[in-house]
Amino acid sequence: MIRVERRLETPRHIQLLIPFVSIAASLIFVGILLMVFGINPIEAYETMIRRAFGTKFGLTELFVKTAPIILTGLAVTIPLRAGLWNIGAEGQLYMGAFAASVVALYFSVPSLLFLVLPLMALIALFGGMLWASIPAILKAKFNLNEIISTLLLNYVAIYWVEYLVYGPMRGKEVYNFPYSDLFNDYAILPRFFGTRFHIGVIIAFFIAIIIYILLTKTSYGFAVKVVGANPKAAEYAGINRKGVIISAMLIGGAIAGFAGMMEVSGLHLRLRSAVSPGYGYTGIPVALLAKGNPLAVIVAAFLFGLLYVGGSAMQTTYGIPVAIVDVFQALVVLFIIGGDFFTKYRIVFSGLRPRGV
Amino acid sequence: MDFISSLIAASMRAGTPLLFATLGEIIAERSGVLNLGLEGVMVTGAMTGFYVSLVTGNPWLGILAGGFAGLLLATIHAFFTVSLKVDQAVTGLMLVLLGLGMTGFLGRDFVGKVATYLQPVEIPVLSDIPYIGEAFFKHDPLVYAGIFLVPLLWYIMNKTRYGMELFAVGENPEAADTMGIAVDKIRFFAVLIGGFLAGIAGAHLSLAYAKVWTDGLTAGRGWICLALVIFSGWMPQRAIAGAYLFGGLDVLSFKLQAAGLGVSYQFMRMVPYIVTILVLLLSVIRGKDKFGAPSALGKPYIREQRF
Amino acid sequence: MSSEKQRNCNSDSDSNSRVSEKETIHEDFILEMVNITKRFPGVVANDGVTLKVKRGEVHGLLGENGAGKTTLMSILYGLYKPDEGEIIFEGKRVSFQSPKDAIRAGIGMVHQHFMLVSKMTALQNILLGYKTPKDPLIDDEWARKKLLDISSKYGIDADLNELILNMGVGEEQRVEILKSLFREVKLLILDEPTSVLTPIETEKLFSALKKMTEKGLTVIFITHKLKEALSVTDRITVLRKGKNVGTLVTSETDEMELARLMVGREIKMEFGRRSKNYGEEIFRIENLHVRDDRGLPALKGITLSIKEGEILGIAGVSGNGQKELEEVIIGTRKVDKGKIIFEGQDITEFSVEKRTQMGISCIPEDRIEVGLAPSLSVAENIILRDFKSFSTRSFMDFKKIEKHAEKLITEFGIKTPSPQTPARNLSGGNIQRLIIARELFREPKLLVASQPTRGLDISGIEYVRRRLISSAESGKAILLISEDLEEIMQLSDTIAVIYGGKITGILRREEATLEKIGYLMTGGDGGLSVSDEQVKRDQNAEEGVVA
Fold first, then answer.
1. Residue C136, preceding peptide bond in cis (omega within 30° of 0)
2. Is pLDDT larger for residue A11 or for residue C40?
3. Do A219 and C387 touch (CB under 8 A)?
4. Cβ–Cβ of B181/C111 closer than 8 Å?
5. Which among A222, A226, A236 is the nearest to C364, CB-wise?
6. How does strand C311-315 pair with strand C477-482?
7. Domain extents in chain A
8. What share of chain A is helix, strand, coil (3-state, %, to 5)?
9. pLDDT per residue over C310-330, tens digit each?
10. How far is C340 from chain A (nearest CA, A)?
11. What is the ipTM of this complex?
């Protein structure tokens, strides 16, 4: 007879194993999918790794794709520690991109051009923060489900940017593509190694470290932790619960906004539709894998960065739509939370119950 | 007048997928399980339905297949959230990703192909009434089915033991358990029904309304339906109003474009989502309706020991 | 209770004919739980317990909190499966997979925390899961008729059309009982039924139980209150630490013996207060009006005052505004009208943080929901309320926190593997010690203690009560909110009774009697002092009034 028993404590070794097993299982699943379409999965994965690590370009691409994911991972992690789901990182990213682009394209005081980049960063932070403030206030004041509100706002932000690049902000020589004009040099993030590796990548790392310190070493971080653990107890402990959840969302939104600025100013060099291939959503599995630790977010972000590089490699080589990356992401998360089940319960095989007396 | 009657007709057509999915989600949420994966389920139903109709030439097989595809995806959700008792929100979100990803991947071959679509059925006599006939009685059978589903669900939920047990399971599963009700079984079943209806909703979208398959056909309708569930206060009779209203919004943006009212298409695309947020806000501000959300919504039920 | 009650008036003739010779001796027992053992992670809740209940009796299951009474009955009711042992009901060996089976066999249970769906009516709750003749349709009429019969037969009724949401606790309990009576149970289990009743409601319940057993029903009555067990049962089984330590005939035993069995040693729960030096008035609330979560008035013009060194006890059954009173003093709930004055200052608008700094502490009623962050460590929970003072320039000083935690763990005897252990791993009693340590360490000037001994075992109860007394003796003002009248009587200097959001009376300890308090708990006359004659007069008049 099979029985399911609650565990007394969560065993460490299983907890550590789960992320790896989940990734492995997802690789196998996706591999099977590839086989169904006549593609040798080993070959495909090989291509992916070779592309990412084999060339200078590939390696820098890996970093370039990882950077925004680190930021969106943080954008999800910070509110998550306070007990909130920020599904709106994608929209906040777009709004940050939009805000930065406005400065990039329309700021034209000749003597102050050196200020443009910092200003873009600042306004992108602000744009993302503002976009996140809507669901934050709705949640704090009206207890409106933040998952649905952040999600709906994503669509609004994405369509807003689309509207702009098809219309008012469309560039002059872009042959009807939904692009804005190219940014001028003073609005472009400096690049290195003759590749697309821009300074934003390094900044992203620093942000992660700063957030780590904020969340684990400060009294604000403690307050966030308490609110996330038990909001009622937080109130009773004198913590301003509403203030904490709003500020956590705002910080997350700001970081996602900065990611948007990085993408338009460091990568695309203009505003366009499809600013991001879904980095905002990727932040969710990253946050879950990292279990709330901003440093682990860096590691998890690399994994997904690798996926994106591999995904585009597979598209060019085998013609597989990039959507396969989404499938992989979803599977990883499902396996992780499914695996969580085994940290709480244990399956016991026992014989018939002994009869008493 | 012509404009209005064709607007009504189009709204009903556009609103039917919304109606099916919302009703399905109402059933699931009434049992206490939140299925955020609605968007993924709908798009899976849409693609599957389209494919089956394409291959077999029978749109009804397509509709059925769409329903079952939705049911299959919902089974994953039910397994994780009811059997394994993991977080409902995350599971649902991943289901969306999975659904969109899988359909984008598998459906790429038949984007733009032409399948056999559902044909409208004219109700004899009634469809000849000027204007009203045009508006109400020249729809494909699923539209009529959707309308019929509302009173049926209302009756089951309010007048039968099944409905009472469903309500109890979503409000206070512990109490239901002590009265001998099989909480997990009911939840599992409710989620499956929800998935089936959402799958049909998707299939209707590809086979009767949009009459096409493209990647991400559902374009966020799943999220709108989640908001509609809240807006309708988890009551089937209120869902129909919201569904047709949003169907109308959808249609209106196209009509305005066609009438050359110079409002940018992209700009109009934002409108349904903004309206949805406002609608949500309204429902929540309306205050603590003493009925409101099922109290146990979103929380897994764990009796201290299992089996 | 007389032991010459009629038994076996409703013998089931069918089962009689099927009973074998070996089982004839069991005919007298409607229920036998034999050698039941049940283990949970880390604890043996029931250890080889054998319980035999005779048909038609009121059988008391007595034991302190944590002795295993509820677990045993949950096994009987099909909520848990025993690890060892067997159950024989009405002469047949049974094994229940779920409450469904228990109900079908004829066993009903009224749980300590009611199992009612608040958004449904009483009638719907009673019918939940029941297949009426027109199944799957719900046959309202048939059900109402049956309930009318039951009401007149047993003297228990409730407003069938009212939502549970709007009901008082006494009526809720009657709905719970009706659920079982409707299903024609042969055995009814009541888990701590009187903890939510006023003395008068308790009387009514007891007389209803008498009627039920006269009609052949068997009742198992779980309680931790000695006096009750003695007054309503025919026989009593005492559980201690998961074991059955004795079954006695009620008329042949007394409080001392039962107490000794329950605890295994002599208990002297006498906390005489040696010194009563009151200081100045330190805390006052004036005409306080407060709303509850639903927006309905919970406190309707409360005025109270406490002096330094005084223990003011608020007596009353839960649900009369105590929770809101606790919250409004601590600061997590807003005031509609009225003032809160502490040390001469009007603190009505002050934040929780400010009040804590000024010296107001609280042991909350909802220990785990409100007072603890279960996933955080013991150390983190200890500093929960003043974590800011453990940080320099916003950065947390972890070493300081650890040292402080270790100090409190030792001083207050909190049993935990380490300060880093997640707080949720602690036992109920130790969680309470943690909270008390946290609140008392700061030497508060006013301590609000809400249901501080609920659910604790005897040693836990002793510890808390002793601590409260010593706190008062060192000059702190204590507001004690408790449903336990004995506790109120033992510890308080002044007693205020709360009913329906109002203070129905304030008595000094010397002039307080259980009767007076009980009278005030059901509304009294709203006046501030009660005379004995008035109590007797009104008690006679109140027979038959639904509480």
1. yes
2. C40
3. yes
4. no
5. A236
6. parallel
7. 1-39+323-347, 60-319
8. 75, 5, 20
9. 999 999 888 889 999 999 999
10. 18
11. 0.86
